[in-house]
Amino acid sequence: MDVCRGREEMPKGNKASFIVSIFSGALLIVSGTTGSVGVYGMILSLIARFVDDALVLRILEVVALVLLFLASLGGLSVILGGYLIYKSKVRVGKFIIGIGAGMGIPGLLLTLFPLVITRDVSAVIAQHGVMGWSGIILSLIARTIAK
Predict the structure, then answer these.
(1) Tens-digit pLDDT string for the chain (147 aa)
(2) Are 144 and 26 in contact (CB under 8 A)?
(3) Taking the alpha carbons of 46, 48, 50, 54 in that order, is the dihedral positive or negative?
(4) Distance (Å, whole) CA 114 – CA 101
(5) Distance CA 41, CA 135 (A)
(6) How many beta carbons lie within 10 A of that of residue 129, not counting itself?
């Protein structure tokens, strides 16, 4: 803690995470890569089947729509998540980065699963393009180095 100025110093990982998330978000924006919008659309359609209470149904629909909105922003969500990490809101920032990039480690593994099955690297790369994959991988790095 900097006693003279009354501020705590930020962990170096958070500043680095913010910088990496800016690059990641820019690559995702340029490539047009967004989060898993289809998954949240499917969640919205399934909610009504399993929830009978109208109030609970409405709350869950609003939550799903917020997640859908964040996923559709893609790179902007990743940059926002990095900013939140920079402002010491690490858990929320990591969550938003994951939603915006559409990937966590499990999502990345599921996306790479066709590569293992087909051994067709070009098809997997073509799914998001080189810039999109670079942005996704950098977003995972940004989440990992945040403290």
Answers:
(1) 444 555 556 666 689 999 999 999 999 899 887 777 667 677 777 887 888 888 988 898 888 888 888 888 888 999 999 999 999 899 999 999 988 887 666 666 666 777 778 777 777 777 777 888 888 889 989 998 998
(2) no
(3) positive
(4) 19
(5) 23
(6) 15
Tokens 């680095």, residue? 16
What are the structure tokens assigned to 62, written together? 């609003």
* CB proximity list for 74: less than 8 A, separation 6 or greater: 25, 28, 29, 32, 33, 34, 35, 100, 101, 102
| Terminal Cα-to-Cα distance of the chain (whole angstroms) | 17
Number of neighbours of residue 92 by Cβ within 10 angstroms: 13
Element (H, E) at 1: none
Q: Which two tokens stand for residue 122?
A: 């070009």
